[in-house]
Design goal:
Elements (H helix, E strand, L loop, with lengths): L2 E7 L8 H14 L9 E7 L12 E10 L4 H18 L1 H7 L1 E10 L8
Parallel strand pairs: 1-2, 3-4
Antiparallel strand pairs: 1-3
């Protein structure tokens, strides 16, 4: 815990090095002081079938969902969300400019009694 899921339309301009991007995302989370590096898990999910806005095939998106156990402060969530979005803006700047790429970050609280791991 936490889980980072990066979904993206397959028409983005960049071909990011996801390992490097996830490394930077993990450091952003650890710098909040609320997460341990060893607990963070990330994955990228390409979306070859998508429909953005008016359906123009040049529209694109990158969406990060951060799932964390409940109990983190609003300030920690805000800091993490804003810093992750800033990293997306930096990483996908060409897609934003050339593809009207929508960037978003969503934080979800998971109930502790509904999360199981070994």
């Amino acid at each position: 815990m936490p889980h980072l899921v990066l979904e993206y339309s397959t028409n983005i301009v960049e071909q990011p090095d996801f390992e490097q991007l996830f490394s930077r995302m993990h450091w952003i989370l650890t710098e909040t002081g609320a997460f341990k590096l060893t607990d963070i898990k990330s994955r990228a999910v390409p979306c070859p079938t998508f429909y953005v806005a008016d359906g123009n095939p040049s529209n694109a998106f990158v969406h990060v969902r951060l799932e964390i156990l409940e109990g983190r402060s609003h300030d920690v969530k805000k800091q993490a969300g804003e810093r992750l979005l800033a990293l997306l803006k930096e990483t996908f700047a060409h897609s934003v400019k050339q593809r009207s790429c929508a960037l978003s970050v969503e934080l979800r609280d998971m109930q502790r009694d509904a999360y199981f791991k070994n």
